[in-house]
Design brief:
Strand order of the largest sheet: 1-6-7-5
Oligomer: single chain
Helix content: 25-40%
Number of helices: 8
Strand content: 15-25%
Order of helices and strands: HEHEEEEEEEHHHHHH
Radius of gyration: 20 Å
Bound molecules: zinc ion
Distance between the termini: 10 Å
Length: 275
């Protein structure tokens, strides 16, 4: 699933659609559109111009000149691809925005989990986010990070996956950050010292910035808006490397999903992942 660095890469590249006017929007899978009818969506966005593209958590926010917002969540395997002209390579197009210069933005997704939202005003957008997403990991201070985690029940990995605490992280960057901070995913939050948590907060920032620099991690489906893969995969330490040698101590990397599940179950703490 695309996480913060992948979404940020897409958002930066989508600078290319700023100032373009929407000529038409076509929806090929109605459920892609979440909080508005397809009919109203088409009516409301036709002939509007793109003002700005930004990110909050794993959401891509497209601001229109009417003051409204189109929001995309890629979920598992969604791809937002910008096309100068038609391209027959993409087979699972759920939604297509065509601009008046005949370029297009397509929402391609094999698994149909991805969603598009529409908000008339910033206040609607803000209330949508307020009960879904927590602090941005690139902005959270050490004090806030420690306060959120130090007295929590449950294991650190589950806490870091909760989008309503700290948003934008998923399995890839949680695993990589914990490894680099020298913390086991199954360590209990409350057993981690303030120094350890402070270190973790800094490692997460470093990992995310490096991943943004390398344009994300492409494991299976993630592609940037021009259809290219990210390069962070080449420097992954643990995620997707079970059975391979640890880059630090050369022992074999083991996956401990059962231990993780057991712990979550035993403590009654659900990761409660909000996509
Ligand atoms: Zn090792």
């Amino acid at each position: 699933m695309p996480e913060l660095p992948e979404v940020q890469t897409i958002v930066s590249d989508l600078e290319v659609i700023v100032a373009k006017k929407i000529f038409d929007i076509r929806v090929f899978w109605d459920k892609t559109v979440d909080n508005i009818s397809v009919h109203s969506l088409v009516k409301k966005v036709k002939n509007k111009t793109i003002e700005k593209v930004s990110r909050r958590a794993k959401y891509i926010i497209i601001e229109l000149d009417s003051g409204a917002y189109l929001v995309f969540h890629l979920r598992m395997s969604g791809q937002l691809i910008f096309l100068e002209k038609d391209n027959l390579k993409y087979k699972h197009i759920r939604l297509e925005i065509s601009f008046d210069d005949s370029s297009k933005l397509i929402f391609n997704e094999m698994r149909k989990f991805g969603r598009t939202y529409y908000f008339d005003r910033s206040s609607d957008l803000n209330s949508f986010f307020s009960n879904r997403v927590g602090k941005e990991p690139l902005e959270i201070s050490d004090e806030e990070f420690i306060k959120l985690l130090e007295s929590r029940g449950g294991i650190i990995k589950a806490a870091l996956l909760r989008q309503d605490l700290i948003c934008g992280l998923g399995n890839i960057y949680v695993d990589e950050s914990l490894y680099l901070a020298g913390i086991l995913p199954t360590n209990l939050c409350r057993d981690l010292s303030q120094d350890k948590l402070k270190k973790l907060n800094n490692v997460i920032k470093t990992v995310l910035k490096k991943a943004i620099g390398l344009r994300g991690t492409s494991m299976r489906d993630y592609l940037d808006v021009t259809g290219n893969a990210g390069k962070y995969k080449e420097i992954l330490n643990v995620y997707g490397r079970q059975g391979k040698e640890c880059r630090k101590c050369h022992s074999k990397i083991k996956k401990s999903e059962s231990a993780l599940e057991e712990l979550i179950f035993a403590r009654g703490v659900k990761p409660d992942i909000v996509f």
